[in-house]
User: Fold this.
Amino acid sequence: MKLRLLILLTTALCGLCTAAAQPAPEKTTPREGIFTFGPGTTISADRELAPLAEYAAEYLGCGVRNGMAGEGSVVLTLDAPDGEPSEAYTLDIAPDHIQIGSSTCGGVFNGLQQLFRLLPPEVYARRGIAPGTGIACVRIEDKPRFGYRGMMLDVARTWIGMDEVKRYIDLFSYHNINKLHLHLSDDEGWRIEILSHPELTEIGGFRGGDSPVRPVYGKWSEKYGGYFKQSKMRELIRYAALRNIEIIPEIDLPGHSRNIASVHPEIRCNYPPDTVSTNGYDYRSAWCVAREENYALLGDILGELCELFPSEYIHVGGDEVDMTQWKRCPDCQALMRQRGMADPHQLEDLFMQRMAAILGANGKRPAVWNEAVATGDLAHDSRVYGWQSVKACLDATAKGYETVVMPGEYFYFDMRQTPHEDGHDWAAVFDAKKVFGFDFTDKGFSPEQMRNVVGLQAAFFSEAYVSHEPEKPDYLDYMCFPRICALARIAWRGNGEGWDAYYKGLVEKHYDRMAAMGIRFRLFPPKVSYKDGAFIYRISENNRLLAANDLKYRYVKMRGEIKEKELMELETIFRDEQHTAIRDTVRNQVERYEEAVRRQAERLEQATVKERKAKKLLDDAEILRQQN
Assistant:
């Protein structure tokens, strides 16, 4: 038993030393002593924090005794505002208690996540902390770099249901992500119930089969899809709020609207479409700006969203509008002449101004993609999401717009991570290292522009997800983790420690946490070396990828003096069928090494032949000398 307690204590102490991997606390002051979890450990909280006490109890396995903080308690307190950012917190660990304090529930939640990171990874299994687990005494004072640390999930193109979204809310919250941007409509689906227009989801929530919305990206022969009822969305909003995550809804307008136009064809522009080349399907995707009846429908839709979502901002899109449709529309052209417009971008300005007016009448503000502020005419109380490029983010911040920075070449996690892996590549091919390396100064943001940066966000657009068994989380996990870890780290603290130090903490500590969280995360492709007649495939100094003759690999982690034959397999996070691309990468590396070894052998053989020839010439010369 003493040995077991020593192991648990050592684990907690090591965790304290390297907990900076995800995310790094601002100030840590070690103290003498150890807090030990035991059967008598309880959780106590101020009245407003009672839901968080219940949340923490699920992970720590402790009883809740609100208002009765005794020795051995974990105490959650709501402190008076002191001028610190709303998510700032303090975590005090003393021999006889643990106290987490903040001026907001969100700050206390952040403190709980820091406490979890100091504990053994098994805390994420929600089976309680083993009695005897010790944690070193320390005081941590912490606050985030940015108040906006977001992730966008596209549930429109490929349906992602209630339970799956809840799971990702949990995973995001473990990494201090505090905004979930839900992409609820696009050409392929409409995913939120509108009570005044039930046809939007009853028809537009499904495609294929007898739906007027055609199937794309797989599942060609079946009708499939889904949507959120408003009652379920309210439940999801509450679930996220407890975990310090605000849900920001998006209805993509005025483009990306083929789905709703398939349900309400009258919203399109006034000209006959060319459907000969599309087998009778009308691919037009933009709302007609000149049709006044459209704004009544949009008023109904946005009015219900404003009532449903507590978020201050409602995202109304503004990206990738096919303006050729407006150029062909006699009504839109007449409107341009009436208003003295020379550029169809001015029609988008007018449309977005109408959306902003509807939102303003309902007490909300518009959030838009960066194209919507190309002219700078949209009201400056709008929030801009800069996705197209770093240049687009620089432009929006220079114009004075609050901007969420998320250029696709760094933060679109549907992009491939190497050229051999699945995903898109139009923005870039990148892994977590590039995400971690994003630096505002290097990208040219001035101090004045930085004042307009509200935070960072990543995105996963789900065009290709439907072809990767979306019923399972494997592909989405694989594409997002550990890239989300790197995003969370730089949004919370920055990247001043450098990649090598961060990567060491990621591999040696956070891999174990992600495994305990149940994440099917991606491993970095191994490095291949050749020594003593054998190829060695390594992920890091303490992690290696072993190879069988048929090039099927498994991730294993070495601990202490464990011998090779006793290496632990973690097959749940390294599945052969999921990691074909990594195996291909290794195979290519192996082939390169084998070719190098073959060439070296040839050079040695050639040198040997030359040496033999030279020796023979010397011998012949010696024989001739002796004969003479």
Summary: Residues 1-19, 544-579 have pLDDT under 50 and may be disordered. The longest strand covers residues 27-36. The two ends are 90 Å apart (CA to CA).
